[in-house]
Structures are given as structure tokens and as C-alpha cells.
Design brief:
With about 300 residues, the chain is mostly helical. The chain is built from 15 helices and two strands. A two-stranded antiparallel ribbon has the order 1-2.
């Protein structure tokens, strides 16, 4: 019994402290920074409406109804010029994170950006904003080796793929992804449209669909099956991903699920990218080896 308890404790500790390939952290860092830049560019045209005193969201009302402390850089930015300057500053942080230059500082700048705009304009938040804000915190506290970065050659040598980088950050990202799917399934168990199989039909008739129209009425039975298939996929994907020999089935199911959502929905490409970004935490060292063998190699001088 004692040996079994020690074995379980060792396995649990290993989920956080076992060594991980530095390239896995680099792939998450680069993809997160890239998606963050896309998100910033999407928000940029509406910055006056979202974040200034002339916009649709009154800062005093937001402050009044904020649970806990109101922490936002936008408390200091009230004009279009100051808001623009802060967004450009945050974008520079995302670019530095993408390139791996001063990554901890850059990750901190990006995390403050997500907290600030989430506090300032809660009415305009969508699903991927929450995903990116949580991921920003996990990137900030995770190891940030110099692998795949523009840092010095000496720093990159110290961050070789076989260096001892603890895997706690990757594990927390995996837990985040599983939590998103679990929450989605549990939230739908008492929803009559999901449980009755009618959700997809109603959704495709709404303004959120890419091609809304009465054509949906001719495929009611098929869409009922799709509704239940989505629920099954969201329940099964975390299980498939966490079992090493099944993880590629999980990758395929997740890709098909979110690609389908992006195809049939209006303006949800960023949600697709935000979710796929977390799937990278389930990759293994051999996957990165396979990828590097197929990428063009720099010629020796």
C-alpha cells in the first residue's frame, strides 16, 4: 500500500516536474504571441468605441460593477491617442514574445494587456478573449527557454531541446484545455436545445451563422445528429489527448470540430486558433524531431 501511494505521488509530481522538450514551450510561445497579435489587430479599428470615454462602455459604470479590484491600464488612458499608444506598446510586447526577446518581460506586458482590456470592456468580450487571458498567465509563469528565438547563440545553446525544463507549464495548459471542454459539456446538460438535439438547427438559422437561411429546415435530422456529435467530441477530446497512444485521434477530432465551427460560424477564426494553440501542449519530443527533419535546414558555412 505504501509503495502504491509513493508511486501515485511520484506520478503526480512528475506531471509538473518531469523534464520537457524546450521546443514545446517555444511552439506555444510563438503561437500564442501570433494569435495575440491577430486579436489586437481585430480590436484596433474599434479602440475608440471599446476603450475611450467617448465609447459605448462607461468606465465608471464598469468600475462600479466590477467584483473585486478594478485593475486596468485603461484607467489611465481616456483619449484615442493614449489608448492607441498603449495598444501599440502591447503589440510591441507581443512581437518581442514572438521573437523570444526579453520573453518574461514581454509575457508580463501581454498579460497586463489582457487583464486591462477585459476589465475595461467586459461587454465586448467573446470566448477566445477568456482563453487568451488565461493562456497569457500560464505563458508568463512557464519556463521560457531561448529555443527558437532571436536571443544570443550562447543562450540558445543553453536552451537545447534536451535541457531539463520542468513540464509544469505544459501540464497546466493541458488542464486548461480539458477544463474548457468539461465546462462546455456540463453547461449544456440542462439546456433543452442541446439535450433535445435542436441547437445546430437554431444556430444555423441565426445571424451568427455564416450562411443562415431556410435551407436548414431540410436537414433537421442530420443537424440533430451533429448536435449530439459535438457534445460527444467535447467530452472525448480531453480523454483522447491525455492517453499518449490516442492523442492523434484527439488532435484530429479537435481540428475537425473547431474547423467546422469556424466554417459554419461568422467571425470565429480567432476562436479556432486560440483553441488549437493549446493543443500544442500535448505534443511530444518525437513530434518536434519529426517536424525538424522536414523543415529546411540551414546550410553549413
Amino acid at each position: 500500500m505504501k509503495l502504491s501511494t509513493q508511486n501515485l505521488l511520484s506520478r503526480f509530481t512528475g506531471l509538473f516536474l518531469d523534464p520537457a522538450d524546450a521546443r514545446l514551450y517555444a511552439s506555444v510561445r510563438i503561437s500564442f504571441a501570433f494569435v495575440s497579435l491577430l486579436n489586437l489587430l481585430q480590436i484596433w479599428p474599434d479602440r475608440e468605441i471599446f476603450f475611450t470615454d467617448l465609447g459605448m462602455v462607461d468606465q465608471e459604470v464598469v468600475r462600479k460593477y466590477t467584483v473585486g479590484a478594478y485593475l486596468s491600464v485603461f484607467d489611465l488612458c481616456h483619449s484615442v491617442s493614449s489608448v492607441s499608444a498603449y495598444m501599440l506598446f502591447s503589440g510591441a510586447g507581443m512581437l518581442l514574445l514572438l521573437l523570444g526577446v526579453w520573453p518574461r518581460l514581454a509575457a508580463g506586458v501581454v498579460y497586463v494587456w489582457y487583464v486591462s482590456y477585459s476589465m475595461r470592456a467586459p461587454l465586448v468580450l467573446v470566448g477566445w478573449d477568456e482563453v487568451l487571458r488565461c493562456t497569457a498567465f500560464l505563458v508568463l509563469i512557464s519556463p521560457l527557454p531561448a529555443c527558437w528565438s532571436l536571443r544570443s547563440r550562447k543562450a540558445r545553446r543553453r536552451s537545447a531541446p534536451d535541457m531539463q525544463v520542468p513540464r509544469y507549464g505544459l501540464t497546466l495548459m493541458q488542464v486548461q484545455l480539458a477544463g474548457i471542454y468539461l465546462h462546455a459539456v456540463l453547461a449544456r446538460l440542462d439546456n433543452e436545445y442541446w439535450m433535445g438535439g435542436d441547437f445546430m438547427s437554431f444556430f444555423l438559422l441565426s445571424h451568427n451563422a455564416r450562411w443562415p437561411g431556410l435551407w436548414v429546415l431540410d436537414y433537421g435530422l442530420v443537424l440533430k445528429g451533429v448536435t449530439y456529435l459535438v457534445l460527444l467530441a467535447e467530452f472525448a477530446i480531453p480523454i483522447l489527448l491525455m492517453v499518449r497512444r490516442w492523442r492523434w485521434y484527439g488532435f484530429a477530432a479537435g481540428l475537425l470540430l473547431h474547423a467546422g465551427i469556424s466554417l459554419m460560424s461568422y467571425n470565429l477564426v480567432l476562436f479556432f486558433l486560440s483553441m488549437m494553440m493549446l493543443y500544442l501542449s500535448f505534443l511530444q519530443a518525437e513530434d518536434m524531431d519529426w517536424l525538424e527533419r522536414r523543415l529546411p535546414q540551414p546550410k553549413a558555412r
